[in-house]
């Protein structure tokens, strides 16, 4: 059979895919534009795509038997049409949980510990000029006793909750669906969660109930010094409102996802004054080397199961 990777660059250049050659011919493209897709898949039996769209038009112009999504979300695949054409679609679940959780705490602790200030202070040589052994110009605090609010208490949210609990945080959550009744933690409405939390981390999908869930009106409820970490999807926080609020109030935002990715030129968040209140990472939460290795292994097994 012939296997085609359409956007291999999204998986990282350090990933080895030699084992896929055991299935037959493997063709690899770093990136693929939509108008290139059908041509590149014309002889393919299996396609592996992360973000490249496979819709009814692509399906009608190929002879695909299996679509492997190198992710959990499958919104780039016309699932119903694929099913009508007897094309199997397989995704991968759960591979990135440890990686996402780790970045969640990395971002939160970055703000809690004021690491940017103290790193810059030392690298600038100012510590060399000090008359005392320590510098405490910018107060930092402990997680112990703080209120950690979670938006979306699924698999990732529950793992974050358990680690926050290990730090002796009080953990509360808001259910975006209204259907999660986890009794291990306190469920609050969104307004109460925003008012009372010292740290809020978001781990929910983007849908009609979560789009612009955090906006200028309700984010004004955040207490001074509050930290918001978005590890869910861009669009859950209104980015224009976020930029405005950062320059009006002492609130801190750490975000790994944006509504449009890659980031657009002259994005409102690039023009804020209080840059120390913002940390943006380029959608890396899912992508530790271990996580990407688990992803590739799972894709390989999906093809193996299909062949057998």
Low-confidence stretches: none
The CATH superfamily of the largest domain turns out to be: NAD(P)-binding Rossmann-like Domain
Rg, rounded, reads 22 Å
> How many domain modules?
2
Calculate the terminal CA-CA distance, rounded to whole Å. 13 Å
- Helix proportion of residues, in percent? 25-40%
CATH class assignment of the largest domain: Alpha Beta
Secondary-structure element order, N to C:
EEHEHEHEHHEHEEHEHEHEEH
Largest sheet: 7 strands, parallel
Report the structural category.
alpha/beta
Cα shape: globular
The CATH topology of the largest domain is Rossmann fold
Summed over residues and divided by their number, the pLDDT gives a mean of: 97
Give the percentage of residues in beta strands. Answer: 5-15%
- Overall number of strands: 12
Total number of helical segments? Answer: 10
The CATH architecture classification of the largest domain is 3-Layer(aba) Sandwich
Strand order of the largest sheet: 8-7-6-9-10-11-12
Structure description:
- It is built from 10 helices and 12 strands.
- By secondary structure, it is of the alpha/beta class.
- The chain has 2 domains: 2-92 and 289-307, Rossmann fold, CATH 3.40.50.720; 97-280, Rossmann fold (3-Layer(aba) Sandwich).
- Helix 3 (79-84) links the parallel strand 4 (66-69) and strand 5.
């Amino acid at each position: 059979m012939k296997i085609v990777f359409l956007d291999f660059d999204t998986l990282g250049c350090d990933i080895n895919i030699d084992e896929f050659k055991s299935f037959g011919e493997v063709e690899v493209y770093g990136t693929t534009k939509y108008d290139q897709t059908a041509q590149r898949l014309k002889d393919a039996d299996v396609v592996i795509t992360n973000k490249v769209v496979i819709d009814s038009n692509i399906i009608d112009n190929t002879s695909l038997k299996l679509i492997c999504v190198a992710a959990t979300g499958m919104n780039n695949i016309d699932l119903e049409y694929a099913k009508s054409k007897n094309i199997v679609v397989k995704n991968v679940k759960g591979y990135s949980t440890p990686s996402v959780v780790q970045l969640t705490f990395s971002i939160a602790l970055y703000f809690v510990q004021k690491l940017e200030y103290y790193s810059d202070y030392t690298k600038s040589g100012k510590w060399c000029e000090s008359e005392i052994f320590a510098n405490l110009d910018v107060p930092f605090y402990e997680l112990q006793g703080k209120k950690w609010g979670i938006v979306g208490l699924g698999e990732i949210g529950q793992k974050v909750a358990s680690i926050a609990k290990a730090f002796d945080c009080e953990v509360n959550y808001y259910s975006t669906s209204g259907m999660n009744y986890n009794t291990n933690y306190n469920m609050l409405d969104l307004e109460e969660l925003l008012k009372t939390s010292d740290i809020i981390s978001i781990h929910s999908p983007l849908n009609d109930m979560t789009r612009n869930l955090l906006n200028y009106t309700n984010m004004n409820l955040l207490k001074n010094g509050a930290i918001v970490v978005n590890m869910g999807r861009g669009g859950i926080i209104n980015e224009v409102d976020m930029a405005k609020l950062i320059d009006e109030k002492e609130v801190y935002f750490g975000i790994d996802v944006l509504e449009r990715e890659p980031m657009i030129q002259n994005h409102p968040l690039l023009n804020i004054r209080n840059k120390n209140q913002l940390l943006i990472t380029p959608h890396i939460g899912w992508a530790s080397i271990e996580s990407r290795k688990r992803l590739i292994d799972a894709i390989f097994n999906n093809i193996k199961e299909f062949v057998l």
